[in-house]
Hints:
Helix content is 73%, strand content 0%. It has 229 residues and is mainly α. Helix 3 (40-85) runs antiparallel to helix 4 (88-106). The protein is rod-shaped, with a radius of gyration of 27 Å.
Amino acid sequence: MGTGTTSGPPRQRHTEDLLAAVSMTSAQLAQAVGRFDGDTLAMVTAAIRTAERAFEELDTCYDVIDDASATGQAITARLSALLAAEDEQSIGPELDALDAVSARVRGTDQARELLHRVLGREEAAERALPAVRRLTGADLPALPSAYADEAGFDDLMALAAREEELAPRLRAAHAERLREVAAHLVHVVEKVAAVGFADEAFARESAHEARRAHALWVRCLAERRRDLG
């Protein structure tokens, strides 16, 4: 839900009308109260109705967050399956869907802030969120290589024999690297989905790290193909 235009859907226009009215009431409280001409009941009734509308709009905002959390969890499950199947082509669209979900939540930020202000309270503080861990290629298991042996080799036959000897370790290292990056990517998306993308900084950092992790996973996949065919 956004607050940027009055040409949007009815629920959006409802929010904009409410925020405009609330802004006027907050700025011109004395004049507004005066217009009730001493009718305390009418004044209280009007205040209650305004508060009810504000709470209804807040509920709508939080419905968006709850829906984003559920959608994010579904995306997490699909990503986990796609990474396990090494379905390289289908992962990017899931990350695009994740960005779209996050953007919908961002569209409620201004409305939530203003409505909480109108109701005379601060928005409940989110629990402290951990920093988004950044994963790089340096954090992954090293790939064994005959070329890294300090002893060196006198001829190509000896080098080929050493590479054959290292082949099981190389396969295991490639598999572990792919597992670690996939697990990290899923973990990042899972954590931001759990809080419904409601914290802007956390959602932004998570989306950025998810993209970086995807790029690292693609690189690891290409390295495995290069080394193992």
